[in-house]
Amino acid sequence: MNRRRRFSFSGFLILLILGICVAAPLLSPYDPYAIGVADPFSGPSAKNWMGADDLGRDLLSRILYGGRITILIAMAATAIALLIGTLWGLTAGVRRGWIDEFLMRTADAVMAIPQILFGLVAISALGASVISLPIVVGILLSPTTARMARSAVVTELASDYVVAAVASGTKRSRLIISEIMPNIAPQLLVQLSINAAAAVMLEATLSFIGLGIQPPNASWGTLMLQGYAKIWNTYWFVFFPAMAVTITILAFNSYGERIRISMDSRRSSV
Amino acid sequence: MGRFLFRRATSSLSVLALSVVLVFMSIRILPGDPVLAKLGAATEVTPAALKALREEAGLNRPLLVQLFSWITHALHGDLGVSYFSQFKVTQLVTERIPVTLELTFFIILIAVIFSLILAPLSALRPGSIVDRVIGYFTSFGLSVPGFVIGIIFILIFSLKLQWLPSRGFTPISESVFENLKLMILPSITGGLTATPYLVRYLRASMLEIKQSPFVRTAEGKGLSNIRILFRHILPNSLVPTLTMLGLIVGYTLSGVVVIEYMFGLPGIGSLAIESSFKRDYSVIQGVALTIISFFIFTTFVFDVLCGIVDPRLQLAKGSQGEP
Amino acid sequence: MKSALIVNGLSLSVPSARGRVAVVDDISFDIPTGSKVGLVGESGSGKSLTAYSLMRLIKDPVRIDQGEIFVGGKEILGMKLKEFRQMRGNDISMIYQDPMSALNPIMRIGTQIIESIQLRAGVNRLQARKIAIELLASVGIPEPDRRIDSYPFEMSGGMLQRVVIAIALSGEPKLLIADEATTALDVTTQARVLTLVDKLAAERGLSVLLITHDLGVAAQFSDEIMVMYSGKIVERGLVSQIFSNPVHPYTKALLNSRCDYTIDVTKPINSIAGQPPRPDNRPEGCVFSPRCVHVQPQCRQEVPPLISIQDRLSACFRAEELFEVGMVK
Fold this sequence. Notes:
- The complex is a heterotrimer.
- Chain A is 74% helix and 0% strand.
- Chain A is an all-alpha fold.
- The N and C termini of chain A lie close together (10 Å).
- By secondary structure, chain B is an all-alpha fold.
- In chain B, 76% of the residues lie in helices and 0% in strands.
- Chain C is built from twelve helices and twelve strands.
- In chain C, the strands form two sheets. Chain C has an eight-stranded mixed beta sheet with strand order 6-7-8-3-9-10-12-11, with helices on both faces. Chain C has a four-stranded antiparallel beta sheet with strand order 2-1-4-5.
- At the A-B interface, helix 4, helix 5, helix 8 and helix 10 of A face helix 1, helix 6, helix 7, helix 10 and helix 11 of B.
C-alpha cells in the first residue's frame, strides 16, 4: 500500500495559528492594553502593521492576544464537546434499547434549539467568562459528536472482528477501549476539526452581540463588536479580526474535509 | 396519509416537549438571580424584601410546579409577564414576530433561489471549472460567520455606495417600498449565510442520484442532459434536501437573532438579546418557546412535504405490491 | 439493410494499478436484420459493457478506446452526441436488468412513457396518453387505462419490466438490446417476458441482442449465440449447432457444467477449474489457456483469431479438431 505523505496546507495553517497565539506575548510589538501608541483609527502603517483602534491601541497586538482568548475558548469547548459527545454516543450505541432511544431523542432536542438562542439563554444566566463560554459552546456542539460516535460504535460492534472477539470471551469494555476507539479515531478527528471551526464561529458570534468576552479583555469577536461600532470611522478595525476569524475557521474546516476525504479513499481502496 | 401525518406529528411533539423542558430547566437551574438583577446593586436589599419579590414572581415554588404552571399558561396563550416592563410577554412577542417572519421568509427564499441555480450548475458537469469555482465559494461561505457577511455588505452598500440604509425598520403597513429597502441587506446577508449549506447538500444529493439506474434509462430514451437534470434528478434530490431545508430554517432562526441585532430590526431575535442583557427570564423563555415551536413546526411541515413529493415515504414498512 | 448492427474492433478499457487495461478486447460482430442474437458470458466477461457502448452510455472511468459501431448503417461512435441522441429510442433501444430501479420512483409510469412518446411524435398530451395506453396494452398490462397512473412501487417486477419494454418500443426502433432483462425476475415471469419480447420482435420486425449469463435463456430465445470470455468473443453459431457440437473449449466446458434434472446427482458437479483472469492480469496467448483441457504450447504464445468452421466462428487453434470429434459423436 503506497502511503503518500502529502503536505497538508490546512494542517500547517492550524499549527501556525495555534503557534502564533501561544507565542503572542513574544510576537506582539506593543502591549495590547496600552492606550495611545498610535493615532486613533489609523490604518495599516509601518509602525502599526494593522493600524490602531479608537483608543490608539495597536491593533496587531490586540489581535494576537485576542486570538489567544478565542482559540483557548474554542479548544476548551471542542474538548468538552468531544468528551461529552463521545460518552453520550458510546453509551447510546453500546446499550441500545430505550436508553439509546432516549439519549438520541435528547440529542435531537438539543439540536432543535437554535444555537445562538441557547447561548443567549445560558450566558445570560451564567455570565460571560472564559469558563462559562467553553461549557456553553461545548454543550451546544456535543449532540453532533454524540450522533457520530453512536453510529460509529454501532457499525464497529456489528463488524466481524468484534463479533469474533465477543464470541471468544473478550469483555466489551476492554474491546471498546483497545479495539474500537482506535478504529473510530479518524472519524473523531474529523468531528474535532469541524467542531473547532464551529466553536470559533460561535464564540465570535456571541462576543459580537455582547454576550461573550467583555472589555477590556477582548477576543476576536469582541474586537469585531468594537470595530463595528466604529465602522464609520475606519473599517480596518473590524476588518482584521474578521479576516483572522474567517481564516481560522477555514483552516479547521479544510483540515476536517481533508481527513474525511482521505478516510473515505482509504476505506474504498481496501 | 393520515397515519403518516400522525406519526410525524407525535415525533415532532415529543422533540418539542423535550426542548422546552431543557430550556426551562437550564434557566432555572443555572445560577443568576433575576430578582437580584432587577434590583441592581443600588439599594440595600433586605432578605425579607427579596423573599417577597421572589414570591411575587413565583420563583419560590418547586421547579416542577413552576414548569407545569408555565406550560399550562403557555397553552392558553399566556406566556407570563416581563420582569421589567410589566408588559405581557405574549404581547411583546406578537408585536415583534411579523418582522422576524418576514425576514426569515426572505432569507429562505433567497437561499432556495440561489441554491436552485448553483447546485444544478455544479451537478450538470461535476469537476468542471464552474463546479470547482462554486465549490470554492461554498467552502468559503461556510467558514465566514454570518455577521461578517453583514458587515461586508454594510461596508459596501451603506458606507461606500450609500445606496441602502444600514439600520432601522418600517412596517409594511406604512410603506412597502421603505420596508423592502430596509429588508434587502439583512435578507441577503442571511440568505448568503444559509446558501452554502443548501448548495452543498443539494449538489451531493444530485450527484448521487445521477448514478441511479433510472437516470440511465432516461438517457437511453434520448432525453437531453438538461431535461434529465431538472425533470428526473432534481425532484429525486429534493426529498432528502427538504429535510435539510428544515434544518436550515433552524440555523436561520439562529442567525436571525444576530442579523436583527446588527441591522436594528425589531423582531423577536433582538428582543431575545435585549432581554438577555437584562436577565429578563420571563421574556427569554417566551421567545425561546416561540422560536423552538416554530422550528419544530417547520421541520414537521417539510417532513410532510417530503411525503407528498415521494409517495413511497407515506407507506409503513412493507408495500402493498401485487403479483 | 443486411445487418441491423455491425461492430468492428471495439475495445473498452478501465484504469487499474498498472495503467488502463482492456475489459472488452477488440471484438467484432454483426446482427443480421430481423434476427435474434444472444450474447452469453459470465460476470465480468464484458458483455454488459458491450451493450452500453452500443447506446453510448459508457461513462468514466470506462472508456471506449477504439472501434466502429454501425447502427442501421450509420456509424455512431464518431457522431456528435447531440446527433446520436436522436437515434436513442428511435433506431436503437435498450431494456435493463432491474426493472424496479430502472424507472424514476417518484414519477408515474404513464408520465415516463409519455415523455418518451412526446420526444418524437409531435403529439399533444392527450394523444400521447392514448398511445401510451395502447402501448401498455400491447405489452400485456391489464387495465392499462388505470395502470398508466400508477407509481413504480405499486407494481410488481414482471409488470415493471413490461413497462420498460413499452418505453423502449415507444420510438419504434429497429434494434433492441436486452441487458440481462430477465435476470432479476423469477422463472415463470422470465418465461412470460421472453415470450412477449419474442412476439413483439416478430410483429415489428425487430432485431434483438439479448445479453445474458444464462445459457438456457439464450437458447430459448435466440437464433444465434455468441459466447464471450474475458473481453473476447470466443464462439458464435446457431443455437442448435452450439449446443450439439460446441467448437470452443470454453463453450464445451460451460455446457458440461450445466445443472438440470438429467445429470447424475451422485457425482460432483462439473465445474471449470480456475477463475477468469482479472483484466490487469491476462495471460499471454489465448486468454482461456490456463483453464483449458485441450491446451497446447501454441495457445500460450499466440492469440487465436476467430476462425470460420462452416458457418460458425471459433477463437481456438484446435477448432477444426473439436469440430471433427464432435461430428463423429
